[in-house]
Structures are given as structure tokens and as C-alpha cells.
Write a structure and sequence with these properties.
The complex is a heterodimer of chains A (about 220) and B (about 260). Chain A has about 220 residues and is an alpha/beta fold. Chain A folds into 2 domains: about 140 residues, 3-Layer(aba) Sandwich (Rossmann fold); about 60 residues, no CATH class. Chain A has 7 helices and 10 strands. A 6-stranded mixed sheet of chain A has the order 6-7-8-3-9-10, with helices on both faces. In chain A, β1 and β2 form a beta hairpin. The two termini of chain A are about 35 Å apart. With about 260 residues, chain B is an all-alpha fold. Chain B has one domain. In chain B, α2 packs across α3. Chain B starts with a helix and ends in a 10-residue tail after the last helix. The C terminus of chain B is likely disordered. The chains are: A alpha/beta (about 220), B mainly alpha (about 260). At the A-B interface, β6 and α2 of A face α1 and α5 of B.
């Protein structure tokens, strides 16, 4: 898996939300995005997902241009902000419904991934009765259930307790070992330092400073 | 090719299942509404009950039953496609493979929903007729109650005028409305289509598709030759082709910002 972002800019009305972004990302690596709210982290993830079209520039995945050759990256899992599920269904039913679109995984795969994130597949509770943390776990299960080779995680630690955070860290490490390209946006600098192989600092839509060695990040103001 | 067909089929079944479950309460209300229409029509048989619903008005007046039947259908189909677009940050659309598949699957879902809505009406009317014991209506009674002359019309023509034309109009209007709702607020698109339906009642012109769905405006009753099944087919197909083509082109460039939509 190789993700190439070339001169990507996005303007919304008069505001530039992505400003000449250039990146080359490889599989088996965790890339962290560090920046304030509204700096452009989520917008870049949306552009990679194919949910928004860049005003300029191209995004290619293994040579396939998003928006031209493909609408959305194949084999991608994502968690963008707070996950929203059908409130009148159980967590398992929600995942089974989404999995029915690609038909790549079985019911037992869904049950296994639910167990992996610490949820009970046999739990009959509807999602509307889930706590914020449980919804977040379900969102992570949804992102990883189809064994993605590209994983976009936007604030995956939101609403999670300590054990939940450890679980997500473990999942991220496992996915990396499987060769998955992971893009992780998080406002917690320490969390990002622990998990990422490479950190991009995002400011006003510019992904200008690349920190591949964590020491550089620690020394920077 | 086979993979694409399989993928599209899976997406369509997803829409059938998900769309029905999300609209459960609306379907229940549709059923109650149709039972009410059935009771309102009295002992006039299946065709009489159909006529009371689809007759419309000769003059430039609005038929409440006709408007609520079509208006509720517009309400039924309007919100699902746009909710699905934003559901869970676009989790469904990214799994569809291509934006065009997603959009066409929604169009298929709309056609299925409209047909189901009409079939539900037939079912309610038939069951209503079983309860009241009145299945048929004589041409004289039809003339007396509804002022519609059905002598000389065979079964094919009756199905075409009573069922085919309103169904086709509903499909065209619902598809146009759903496509509009992807680009403007769904409530506004609902109001636009609702206003268009009302305008049909006050403007006896083939450009207003609602006229084709009113029995008293159709060529065999009104004598207005332009409100014919052929023109109905051409107008509806034209509207659908324009809506789907323009919708597909614009949708391919559409940005999905509202990521926390859905229920």
C-alpha cells in the first residue's frame, strides 16, 4: 500500500483548509497528525476517503487516483470523529448491516472483532443505550472489521477509559504489524508520540513540519 | 462485470433492508392512511376506491385525497438517501465502491418503495372489498358517482390509466426530489415537489406531471389530448433522465461535509 498526496489544496469559499499538501505514505507505518482543532487534519482524511474533492492536486493509492480511477480507496477502514450508528439496533446488527455491502466478512468475523474491542457480540442492548466509550469501541470495530490495508483514525481515544485507550493502542500496533497504513489524528501529543512512526504537524492546512524522530518533537516548542 | 453486478446487488439489498427499517413508522402511517382512504370511498369496489383516490378534479381545484396520497409518498422517500450519505461519517458510501453505484442503488430503492406503496394500496383496497363484499362497480354507478365514463375501456387501459400513469408520475417525482435533496436541504426539496404537485392541480398543462396522475385530467375523460399515456411516458422519462444525469454529474463532484448526520 502506497499513498501519494501531491500538491493537494482545498478551498471552501475564501478559506484555504488544505494548503499544498505533499506526502508519500507507506504501508506498515503509523503516521500521526498533530494540530489544533480546525487545522485541517480531518479535512485531509476526508479527502483521502474520497468524501471531498481537492481543489488542486491529486491523491493516489497504489497508482489509482481518487476521484478519477476510483471514487473511494478499496480496503479502507475509517473512524472520523464521533461514530454514529443506528440507535434502534444492537452493535452487532449495525456492523452486520454495513458488512453486507462489501460481503467480505462473515458473522463470526464480526463477532470476533467485537470481542477484540471489548464488546459482547451477544449483547442485546440497542446502540442508543451505549455509553460514549462503547460507541467509540464500536466505531473502531467498524473501522477494522474488514481487515483494511488503509486505516484512518480521527481522535480514536475520544470517550475511552484507560483500558479502552490501551486496547486501541494494541489494535493500532497489531494493524501496523499486519502491514496496514495507519493515519492517526489525535490532539494528545504523548499518545501520538507513543504510537506514531512519523508525525506531521498541521497548521492552517499546511503539513509543513515532519518529525520522524520523536526527539525532534519533544525539543520543539 | 460479474463483480460489479454482485457489488451492486449487495448494495441494493442493503438499501432495501436498511431503508425499510428506517422508515418503519412512516410505512405504518402509510398503511393507516390507505385504510382511511378505503373507508372514505364506501362500497364502491376496488376500482371505485381507486377512482376516489386518483380522480382529482376536472376544474382547477385541489383534491385533498389525491394530494395527501402523493404528498405522503414524497415524504416517505425524501430523507433516506441523504441520511445514508452522511450516516456514520459516510461509512455506507465508502463501502459502495463507486459514487455512481451508491446513487443508482438509491434510485432503485426509490422505485421499489414507490411500487411497494402502490401495491400496499391495492392490498388494502382488495382486503377492504373482501370485508365489504363489493368488488366491482358498474359503468353507470361510476358515471353517477365519479362522472367518469368507463364504457369501452378494457382491463389493460384501466390498469394503464388508473395505475400505470400515476405510478410513473410518482416514480419520476420521487427520483427528482431525492436527487434535489442531495444538493439542497431535504425539507426544501420536499416543499418544492409539494408545490409542484399543487401547481399541477391549478394548471392543466402537460408540463405539470401531476395532471397525468389525475383521472379527470387524462385524455379519455377530459378530452385534452396532450394528457395522454404516451406523453406521460415521454415527460416522466425526460424528467428522470435529466434528473439522474445532472444528479450523477454533480454528485461525483459533491463534497460530503456533514459527517454526523443520519438518525
Amino acid at each position: 500500500m502506497k499513498l501519494t498526496i501531491t500538491h493537494v489544496s482545498k478551498k471552501i469559499q475564501d478559506s484555504t483548509v488544505l494548503n499544498d499538501v505533499n506526502m508519500t505514505l507507506e504501508g506498515g507505518t503509523v503516521y500521526g497528525l498533530l494540530g489544533k482543532n480546525g487545522s485541517g487534519k480531518t479535512m485531509l482524511m476526508r479527502a483521502i476517503c474520497g468524501l471531498i474533492s481537492p481543489t488542486n492536486g491529486t491523491i493516489e493509492i497504489d497508482g489509482m487516483m481518487i476521484g478519477k480511477d476510483i471514487s473511494f480507496p478499496k480496503n479502507m477502514g475509517m473512524l472520523l470523529e464521533t461514530p454514529v450508528f443506528l440507535p434502534e439496533r444492537t452493535g452487532y446488527e449495525n456492523l452486520r448491516l454495513l458488512a453486507s455491502i462489501r460481503r467480505e466478512i462473515t458473522s463470526s468475523d464480526i463477532k470476533r472483532v467485537l470481542e477484540q474491542v471489548g464488546l459482547n457480540a451477544k449483547d442485546k442492548r440497542k446502540v442508543r443505550k451505549y455509553s460514549l466509550g462503547m460507541r467509540q469501541r464500536l466505531g473502531i470495530a467498524c473501522a477494522i472489521m474488514e481487515k483494511p490495508s488503509l486505516l484512518l483514525l480521527d481522535e480514536p481515544f475520544n470517550g475511552l477509559d484507560e483500558s479502552g485507550c490501551q486496547l486501541v493502542q494494541q489494535i493500532i500496533c497489531e494493524q501496523r504489524e499486519k502491514g496496514c497504513l495507519i493515519l492517526l489524528a489525535c490532539h494528545d501529543r504523548e499518545e501520538l508520540e507513543t504510537l506514531s512512526d512519523c508525525i506531521y504537524r498541521v497548521e492552517n492546512g499546511r503539513f509543513s513540519v515532519t518529525v520522524q524522530n520523536h526527539e525532534q518533537l519533544r525539543l520543539s516548542p | 462485470m460479474r463483480l460489479k453486478c454482485r457489488q451492486f446487488k449487495a448494495l441494493f439489498f442493503y438499501d432495501l433492508s436498511n431503508g425499510f427499517q428506517r422508515n418503519q413508522w412512516k410505512w405504518l402511517f402509510a398503511l393507516l392512511l390507505q385504510i382511511y382512504y378505503c373507508i372514505l370511498a364506501g362500497n364502491t369496489g376496488v376500482l371505485g376506491r381507486f377512482t376516489s383516490l386518483f380522480e382529482g378534479q376536472y376544474e382547477l381545484q385541489l383534491s385533498t385525497q389525491w394530494l395527501t396520497f402523493h404528498g405522503f409518498l414524497l415524504f416517505l422517500v425524501n430523507f433516506y438517501p441523504v441520511n445514508e450519505l452522511t450516516y456514520n461519517g459516510g461509512q455506507a458510501i465508502i463501502r459502495s465502491g463507486r459514487k455512481e453505484y451508491w446513487l443508482f442503488s438509491k434510485m432503485m430503492w426509490i422505485i421499489s418503495t414507490v411500487i411497494s406503496y402502490y401495491l400496499l394500496l391495492v392490498l388494502v383496497l382488495v382486503i377492504g372489498s373482501v370485508f365489504t363484499g363489493s368488488f366491482s362497480i358498474s359503468p353507470d354507478v361510476m358515471m353517477e358517482i365519479f362522472e367518469i365514463d368507463i364504457t369501452g375501456l378494457n382491463l389493460t387501459k384501466i390498469i394503464l390509466y388508473w395505475w400505470g400513469m400515476p405510478l410513473l408520475v410518482s416514480i419520476a417525482l420521487c427520483i427528482t426530489e431525492a436527487i434535489l435533496s442531495l444538493f439542497i436541504q431535504p425539507v426544501i426539496s420536499l416543499f418544492i415537489m409539494f408545490a409542484y404537485l399543487i401547481a399541477s392541480a391549478y394548471c392543466m398543462n402537460p408540463a405539470f406531471l401531476g395532471n397525468y396522475a389525475m383521472l379527470k385530467r387524462q385524455d379519455f375523460t377530459s378530452g385534452v389530448l396532450s394528457i395522454s399515456p404516451q406523453n406521460c411516458l415521454i415527460s416522466c422519462m425526460l424528467l428522470m433522465i435529466i434528473a439522474v444525469t445532472a444528479g450523477t454529474l454533480c454528485f461525483k463532484r459533491k463534497d460530503t461535509f456533514q459527517l454526523q448526520g443520519g438518525e
